[in-house]
Amino acid sequence: MYDNWVVVFRSGIDYEADIVRDRLADSGIPAVVLSKRDHAYNLFFGDLAKVLVMVPADKETEAQSLLDAEPVSDAELEAAALASTVDPEAAGPEDPFDSGSESIRLSVPDNDPDKE
């Protein structure tokens, strides 16, 4: 199943491997997480705690270059955030995440549906 796939990252922690896989995928490099971790004993070291990130062999060099690159600095992140534009009119009633309510009540609802 994993013929011609190579390991580019090893960890004993699942979420670290997930972050690496997502970083590779965001850059257009197909990646999968192969967990050999024994979750029954919750081990974080040794052969029973291997969590691998694998990519196709022809993408190994590109993946290693990306993982070895310097991380984006806080200043670069802040500059990118400040340079972005947000259109407040972009989300409207057709927005699937819009509940249609102007407010949300966090109290326990009354049993009488006619009460407001």
- CATH architect. name of the domain at 5-68: 2-Layer Sandwich
Gap between N and C termini: 59 Å
Instruction: Please tell me how large the radius of gyration is.
Output: 23 Å
Envelope shape: extended
Question: pLDDT below 50 for ≥5 consecutive residues: which ranges?
Answer: none
Average pLDDT confidence is 77
Task: Write down how many β-strands occur, each being a DSSP E stretch of 2 or more residues.
Answer: 3
Task: Name the helix and strand elements from N-terminus to C-terminus, one letter apiece.
Answer: EHEEHH
By DSSP (H or I, 4+ residues per run), the number of helices equals 3
Instruction: Indicate the CATH class of the domain at 5-68.
Output: Alpha Beta
In terms of structural class, how would the helical and strand content be classed?
A: alpha+beta
**CATH topology tier name of the domain at 5-68:** Alpha-Beta Plaits
Oligomer: single chain
Strand content: 5-15%
How is the topology of this model organized?
Elements: E1 5-11, H1 14-26, E2 32-35, E3 51-56, H2 60-68, H3 74-83
Antiparallel strand pairs: 1-3, 2-3
Quick summary of this structure?
This protein has helices at residues 14-26, 60-68, 74-83, and strands spanning 5-11, 32-35, 51-56. The chain has 116 residues and is of the alpha+beta class.
Structural commentary:
A 3-stranded antiparallel β-sheet has the order 1-3-2, with helices on one face. By secondary structure, it is an alpha+beta fold. The protein is built from 3 helices and 3 strands. It is extended. It has a domain at 5-68: Alpha-Beta Plaits, CATH 3.30.70.
